[in-house]
From TrEMBL:
Residues 1-19 form the signal peptide. InterPro entries: AB_hydrolase_fold, Stereospecific_Lipase. Keywords: Signal. It comes from the Eukaryota. This is Lipase B. The lineage of its organism: Eukaryota, Fungi, Dikarya, Basidiomycota, Ustilaginomycotina. Coiled coil: none annotated. PANTHER family: LIPASE B. The keyword Signal applies.
């Protein structure tokens, strides 16, 4: 597979957005079967205190590629959500979210059902990077959780993938979920054609135009990977100016991210309120409420993810789609060949 030139890749992303009319979302009676044993899914769900089935005000944290839930959020949204009065819980699909993202989504479905049943209330969800994409996949294809998710606060989600992922496959460094996050993949095509590129629950998306992992992000429009239709989409530079430099990890950990996330989690609408954050909050350093050690750890988040990615499993092609998603990506190629 050759490296995709940036301009050509951008055309691919545009085609993902505009090529095919969206189909209607799967109906509530159409939940597909879960393929991973529940005992395995349960082992991937942890909470800061107590059993996941006995949380009173849980919030679900979903990590990005290359990290566990603990690695992703211990330096940021575990303490920050606790400060807001939540009981943080997180999933850690092994290994480090590098597996098939369809399987990663099953951990999300199980976690939502478990936390909802234990608390008796809808569950807010906070995500980073692939976590946002996996949650949107779960909401799209597992309708039973739609009424159990209170809101989605997604930091640097890659709903449309990234043109950068092709570099990893070129050099033989792509795990299963990395193949799926390449712009124009069968996985992303299925999400788009199933109606998954629009808001399903109240959603806030926060991202940076200079993100070095997820691109394109610079148009402040539906072309951007993190942009979701009918949602609260916040491109940092639109508010803070083009000189505001925040990287992929900073989109999760920065002071500006804290202000937007706090607004989204506290609002009556379920989405961030523009009047509750602004240019005065344009600080790229780690969120002010964090301890000195947490701020230091937040600064090394990408190094942890990179190390796990380099040491993790690699594959030579995109994983096959589950039977329930195949009809949304006919003509696309996966490991078993062209989807018919």
């Amino acid at each position: 597979m050759k490296t995709i030139p940036f301009v050509s890749a951008l055309i691919v992303v545009l085609s993902v957005v505009t090529a095919t009319p969206l189909l209607s979302l799967p109906r509530p009676s159409s939940d597909p079967p879960i393929t991973t044993p529940k005992s395995v899914l349960d082992r991937g769900l942890e909470c800061q205190t107590g059993s996941p089935s006995r949380q009173t005000r849980p919030i679900l944290l979903v990590p990005g590629t290359g990290v566990t839930g603990q690695q992703s959020f211990a330096s940021n949204w575990i303490p920050l959500s606790t400060l807001l009065g939540y009981s943080p819980c997180w999933i850690s699909p092994p290994p480090f979210m590098l597996n098939d993202s369809q399987i990663n989504s099953e951990y999300i479905v199980n976690a939502v059902h478990t936390l909802y049943s234990g608390s008796g209330g809808k569950v807010p969800v906070v995500t980073w990077s692939q976590g946002g994409l996996a949650v949107q996949w779960a909401l799209t294809f597992f309708p039973s959780i739609r009424g159990k998710v209170d809101r989605l606060m997604a930091f640097a989600p890659d709903y449309k993938g990234t043109v950068e992922a092709g570099l990893l496959s070129t050099f033989g460094l792509a795990a299963e979920s990395v193949w799926q996050q390449q712009a124009g993949s069968a996985f992303l095509t299925a999400l788009k054609n199933a109606g998954g590129l629009t808001r399903i629950v109240p959603t806030t998306n926060l991202y940076s135009s200079v993100d070095e992992i997820v691109q394109p992000q610079f148009t402040n429009s539906p072309v951007d990977s993190s942009y979701l239709d009918n949602s609260m989409n916040v491109q940092m530079q639109q508010i803070c100016g083009g000189g505001f430099i925040v990287d992929h990890a900073g989109s999760l950990t920065s002071q500006f991210s804290w202000m937007v996330g706090r607004s989204a989690l506290g609002s009556k609408t379920g989405e961030a309120v523009s009047g509750e954050f602004g240019k005065q909050d344009c600080n790229a350093t780690a969120a002010e409420p964090l301890s000195a050690q947490q701020k230091s750890d937040a600064g090394g988040l990408l190094l942890v993810a990179a190390g796990n990615l380099l040491g993790g499993p690699k594959v030579k092609c995109e994983p096959d789609l589950m039977e329930y998603a195949r009809k949304y990506a006919t003509g696309m190629k996966t490991c078993s060949g062209v989807i018919m």
